[in-house]
Amino acid sequence: MDTTGPIGSQPGERASSCPQEGMPRPSDSSDLVQECLQQFKVTTTQLRQIQATLLCSMEQALKGHDSPAPSVRMLPTYVGSTPHGTEQGDFLVLELGATGASLRVLWVTLTGTKECSVEPKSQEFAIPREVMLGAGRQLFDFAARCLSEFLDAHPTENQDLKLGFNFSFPCHQTGLDRSTLISWTKGFRCSGVEGQDVVQLLREAIQRQGTYSIDVVAMVNDTVGTMMGCELGTRPCEVGLIADTGTNACYMEEARHVRALDEDRGRTCVSIEWGSFYDAEALGPVLSTFDHALDHDSLTPGAQRFEKMIGGLYLGELVRLVLVHLAQHGVLFGGCTSPALLSQGSILLEHVAEIEDPTTGTAHAHAILQDLGLSPQASDAELVKHVCAAVCTRAAQLCAAALAAVLSRLQHSREQQTLQVAVATGGRVFERHPRFRHTLKEMVMLLVPECDVSFIPSVDGGGRGVAMVTAVAARLAAHKHILEETLAPFQLDFEQLTVVQAQMREAMVRGLRGEASSLRMLPTYVRATPDGSERGDFLALDLGGTNFRVLLVRVAEGSVQITNQVYSIPESVTQGSGQQLFDHIVDCIVDFQQRHGLSGQSLPLGFTFSFPCKQLGLDQGILLNWTKGFNASDCEGQDVVYLLREAIRRKQAVELNVVAIVNDTVGTMMSCGYDDPRCEMGLIVGTGTNACYMEELRNVAGVAGDSGRMCINMEWGAFGDDGSLGLLSTCFDASVDQASINPGKQRFEKMISGMYLGEIVRHILLHLTSLGVLFRGQKTQCLQTRDIFKTKFLSVIESDSLALRQVRAILEDLGLTLTSDDALMVLEVCQAVSRRAAQLCGAGVAAVVEKIRENRGLQELSVSVGVDGTLYKLHPHFSRLVSATVRKLAPHCTVTFLQSEDGSGKGAALVTAVACRLVQRARD
Ligand code: BG6
Ligand code: GLC
Ligand code: GLC
Question: Which atom of ligand 3 is nearest the CA belonging to 717?
């Protein structure tokens, strides 16, 4: 309230002004009194209209309507549940803004049980007027000084000081500890604070002060503190109501009704900020001339109109304006005023409360009026009592209408005909004013008779409630810290990635030379990419990815036509005997031929076989070892083409001409190479991961010839199997490896590819659960089930278009019960795991393209990479992260990634076509 100049004072006015001519005659005076008091009367119909209009405004604000802007804000507070009563610990609470020009510091001990409660310690500090209206920095520095003084006076052993900031102004919260002041209300107007995060401002001030290290963990509105601190009774306390310097309420709303939140389950506490309510039709007729005068001379003209009729900061002022009016019209004090009476803010809430006291009121009225420099008669004191009663009764009735709107809203959102609810009340208007509570209750019963409401006075001004929210916030912050620590080893920096790139490069060179290396660098006998002159019909098989496929590929001039059929291979077959596996493959081919009218034809066949093979020629490949969950017996060490031919012979039903065996990386490179001759690398990031590229023959030991190039299947999934990735590998990688069918093998693949990422995530989730950070510490059966967390979930969960509630739904479908905090953590885990995978993959690609560039002695290389695999294609961010990493690690290479559209079967057919072309040419 601006007290720079008394309201109604005229320039040159004398110390005390007395009757002049033109004063009303006594007979007029009772009319004047009536007229004045009448202005404070509100009818039940008017109250009902206010209730209905406020309810409507609340509902619009919940729905996020902004045109016309609803006059209440309905601010989410990030408090999701009423207290369990089990919260524990010592907390500092700093209260600012609830009780006028004072600031309170409290030390609250929560014992976790109702039975043994500990009285809080508290200290109040008066805020100098120049601080309330000065620079924001000054206000926060003042607060930090008060905290220090309090802690000096109440020394504690506790080094880990956690603070809840009870800041009672309208704020946009985006978390328990992130809160932007929208606008000052009540008597505050500090510059540079509106639009700023007040939690941050307080943290900075505490740091500037430097005496104590205090962690500000939560910001809480006074209404919320009051609701949360409410003694647990038989019914839930789901409304917090404050009538103090200002007025406001909060209540538990169904989260799905709050548009500003991305949440569809549970309840959330919403601060209504009803102080700003205004509606010309509903509130206009109730506003008196005194309300207009008060608003006009306030710090915030036009704002907080509803609050200015109820809040303790304004009630005394309204009384004073009426008294001035009546005195100036000769009805009071013999027509005399005094400078004090004419000064804004000279009558306080305390005065009004004392005057209204049923037994001592009259005596108080005399004393207070005399203190104001007036000489009251007995009749003056009586009239002043009437004025106070009129102003306060109206305040209580208006407050009741607003509370009735909240109760109707609760009833509606709970879809209940009758509502049993407890309302926690707090604030000096309640505490000091004798009749306020009573009038409010009566009016609420009249306005919402179907609600059974019990009113529970707050015991310590909401300090305990703030401490409870702080306890929850502190627990969340501790959890966040554990999460960050857990995920830290997954965050790879540039140096670490450079080391991976260099190690990969070294392993490539050793592998090519035939020296010990985790990279086998297998020659593929593919020497050239297609030149476009290939023609004919080819069969292709594609085994080793998500799907087993049989394809018919028709290569004509300028076009390749593909017909394909997916067949399933049961796990009993992938992990059964080799004979079973190859018999199954031939059965599928026979079926395919029959379906497509190809029976009896012996088309050339290319076999995409996506496992490490030592090739001795294009049509001879010895399986070195199974990878990716395949484990059919008696195949390792055998020529796969021979095994296939044997199965054909066993069946005697088909004639097949197996021309080439091709790794999926090679198939992909060839397939993309058909359209882009610069495609000299193939990359797979799917069930497994691997790469191939065109190497200079002179660098390849074990293959005759020194000129030209040959495609090398790197089998990079095995990179690190010699222990070289040891430093990067986490305990979660180790668990996934140990539980796999090939422990110690394919270590790079197990950090990158689709078959394993979900498992890494699951192991991290298990760890976080065992620390009580996730899923309330409950290790459900589901979470302990191997492979339950498919990598495709990572792709879906990480999609930008997905709301958190959808993430939750996906996880719930898996049988996990989780809160939104849990869902957010799961998302962060997924992001960390897939980001590391993409970066490692990028480091590998960088090593390869740099080697190609150096092989050719080029300053700059422009090269394309053909890519396939479900993870690469389906994950929303994987491909972007791979290329970003490559750009950083191989700055002299311009790398274009081409996604293969038709799988590597087409590539296998093309390899076959090239081989047939070469054979044909040799024959001609
Ligand atoms: C395609 C192939 O190129 O990509 C598959 O046709 C291959 O056989 C696959 O293995 C890799 O993807 P995924 O995700 O199916 O393993
Ligand atoms: C004002 C504030 C509000 C607070 C109320 C009671 O209306 O804007 O946040 O709850 O006063 O202190
Ligand atoms: C595995 C195989 C490899 C294949 C890759 C991608 O790593 O060993 O041959 O290319 O998966 O499917």
Answer: 7
